[in-house]
């Protein structure tokens, strides 16, 4: 049986994780909480030791705009499924975007708002300190310095509420700003075989500094929050047929082949899709196949 370990490992600062991880955004969609619990526990059984989440991952509504029934939060599902957490499990969350009853969806712009979001993550996950916190921003050319916001998170790290820091939805200059304040263990941006290929330079920048690059939408591509795309290139379809695998598995394998510092965090609320995603950790693509996708 293929496990997440087949993808190899990389370090998030001082901790080592399997490069095949799991993204928790989609586990809130099903009103049957037991399905999310099953998927999360099975992911860990299959060697996943890096889970990506956020306090604003919730359904009904939320970033997915789906679902019915009582409100379900990814963080609370993770806690219900996995606490007490196994040794070596790294849970990465993100702050910046927020969602509450009074303000709706908003972006944190003050130290108080960021602290509130960190404390919400701590409470939902049931931990005293967060393993990794990414500052996720909305890029606004010419007016989007992250120095102040990242500095506030560094202060929360110094208080012991956060162990490691990362950044999300950023450019190289943002990473440079952050590195001047505190170590950066990961960069999380949207990236796929057919999405945002201008990110290649940032991936290399991170690799040179031992920073993990963690792409989201590797399977979804341009469908983004809509879920796994069905619009695959002829090259992806051909490779999938050659290896007798799904196009989604080819997309994940390509992601892992891109660079040793690239981690995959495919998300699903479907147990069978989880198994397929993990199996992609062992899918080897030839240099000719990789070239055909470029």
Describe this structure in words.
The chain has ten helices and 13 strands. With 294 residues, it is an alpha/beta fold. The longest helix is centred in the middle third of the chain and has 15 residues. The protein starts with 8 loop residues before the first strand and ends with a helix. A seven-stranded parallel sheet has the order 3-4-7-10-11-12-13, with helices on one face.
Condensed summary:
The protein is an alpha/beta fold and 294 residues long. It has helices at 33-45, 74-82, 111-125, 147-158, 172-179, 200-208, 234-243, 247-258, 271-279, 287-293, and strands at residues 9-12, 15-18, 22-23, 50-52, 58-59, 72-73, 90-95, 97-100, 104-107, 130-136, 162-168, 186-188, 212-213.
Task: Supply database-style keywords.
13 strands, 294 residues, two-stranded antiparallel sheet, 35% helix, globular, seven-stranded parallel beta sheet, single chain, alpha/beta
What value does the average pLDDT take?
92
Low-confidence stretches: none
If you compute it from the alpha carbons, what radius of gyration comes out, rounded to the nearest whole angstrom?
A: 18 Å
Largest sheet: 7 strands, parallel
CA distance, first residue to last residue:
30 Å
Strand content: 15-25%
Structural class: alpha/beta
How many helical stretches?
Answer: 10
Strand order of the largest sheet: 3-4-7-10-11-12-13
Shape: globular
H/E element string?
EEEHEEEHEEEHEHEHEHEHHHH
**Extended strand count:** 13
**Range of helix content:** 25-40%
């Amino acid at each position: 049986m293929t496990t997440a370990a087949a993808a190899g490992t990389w370090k998030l600062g001082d901790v080592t994780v399997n490069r095949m991880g799991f993204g928790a955004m989609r586990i809130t969609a099903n009103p049957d909480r037991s399905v999310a619990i099953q998927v999360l526990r099975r992911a860990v059984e299959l060697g996943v030791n890096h889970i990506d989440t956020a306090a604003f991952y919730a359904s009904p509504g939320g970033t997915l705009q789906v679902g019915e029934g009582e409100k379900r939060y990814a963080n609370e599902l993770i806690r219900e499924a996995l606490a007490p957490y196994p040794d070596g499990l790294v849970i990465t969350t993100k702050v910046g975007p927020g969602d509450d009853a009074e303000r709706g969806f908003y972006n944190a712009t003050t130290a108080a708002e960021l602290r509130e979001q960190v404390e919400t993550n701590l409470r939902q996950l049931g931990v005293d300190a967060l393993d990794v916190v990414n500052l996720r921003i909305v890029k606004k050319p010419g007016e989007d310095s992250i120095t102040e916001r990242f500095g506030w998170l560094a202060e929360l790290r110094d208080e012991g509420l956060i162990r490691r820091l990362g950044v999300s939805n950023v450019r190289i200059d943002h990473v440079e700003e952050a590195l001047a304040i505190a170590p950066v263990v990961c960069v999380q941006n949207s990236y796929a075989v057919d999405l945002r290929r201008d990110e290649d330079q940032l991936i290399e920048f991170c690799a040179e500094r031992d920073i993990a690059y963690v792409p989201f939408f590797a399977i979804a591509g341009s469908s983004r929050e809509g879920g796994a795309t069905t619009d695959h290139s002829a090259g992806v379809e051909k490779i999938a047929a050659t290896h007798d695998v799904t196009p989604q598995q080819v997309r994940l394998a390509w992601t892992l082949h891109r660079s040793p510092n690239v981690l995959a965090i495919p998300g699903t609320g479907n147990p069978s899709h989880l198994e397929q995603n993990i199996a992609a950790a062992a899918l080897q693509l030839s240099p000719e196949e990789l070239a055909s996708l470029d």
